[in-house]
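Appendix C reproduces, verbatim, an entry submitted by the partner laboratory led by Prof. M.T., so that reviewers can inspect both the input and the predicted structure.
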Amino acid sequence: MSRKNILITGASVGGNTVAWWLSRQGFDVTVVERADSFRDGGQNVDVRGAGRDVLRRMGLEQQAMELTTGESGTDWVDEENRVIARFAVEDIGDGPTAELEIMRGDISRIIYEPTQQKARYRFGDHIVKVDEDKTGSLVTFKSGIAERYDVIVVAEGVGSSTRALLFPGEYKMRYLDLTIAYFSIPGKENDGKFARQYNTTGGRGATLKPGSDGNLRVYMGIHKVSEEEQKWGTERQKQFLLDKFAHDGWEFPRILKEIPKVQDFYFDVMRQVKMDRWSAGSVVLTGDAAWCATPLSGIGTTLAIVGGYVLAGELSKTDDHVAAFAAYERIMRPFVKEGQGLPKIVPRLLWPHTRLGLAFLRTVMRLAGTRAVRKIFSTLFLRDSKKVELPDYNLNT
């Protein structure tokens, strides 16, 4: 392996994982991030199966476990917060709540902090132009800086602007008909350690999750056909929620009271990214930019961590980056297919529109919460987080 000059765009979980491994194999790594500084916070995420195996190989699994949110499981509840069905981690392991439930910013930071000692990070900048030739690519940034790189790794989010620039018209979106907002509100002592999932009619519902910082994480949404609400301004998005949930009970009055004040508001339309190829020349996609499976899969963060490990491992095996990209895609495609395999009927059933649909859901959940059924139910709607054979690259750690 010759010493290659690698550019990674995107400093979240996937990009940091690639940088972590490559910077330890003698690569010259630069990470560019559009945000002005490292992004803490974000919603709760979980790391399962093969993702935990990679963290173990990085020596970071125990550190991650020490930063878990303390979530003990998930309760499906009614209007009075009476438990319809309980899925406790101690009973079923990785179910709706994973054993390693952690804030997105926390898992990203424990990878970033050791990596930034070996790789260069440049915040507040992004790619605006790439001119590729036989020896690599000349990359021009928004800041006006122009530099040459042997390989460019695009590790951005579902709406990646760099993917749109370098793979125009090649990505398709599979919409799951669910519009979701993520944000945090002040917690209360009686919120407890179990996440609470509540649904009402009209496709409306929310999940409340405990956070490690004492705040309560809100996942609030509506099952509906997309109107590309993710493109709206923040104030319009907030007003949309205020209007849609104005007459609902449960915890919604408390939530709506806080919405105008929240600072960590994120609003999106659930959609999967479908790409026929993840690489072209010296450019390769990974993480959500390549294959977003959405949080509904339960293994989005796991896919990002595993994808970063496999991509770095294949690049470390050979000087031929094209061959490395092909091997990386061969290994990851079946795992991504598993992650994206959620039928669209699932969110439709879990976010009912009618009283009859809500009654049916609650009847099913009562059955699913019984001792004999809950383990089977918990794995039925979650994708298989171990459905990949992790290569052993004998990488330096």
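DSSP finds 14 helices and 18 strands in the chain. Additional entries are available on request from the coordinating office.
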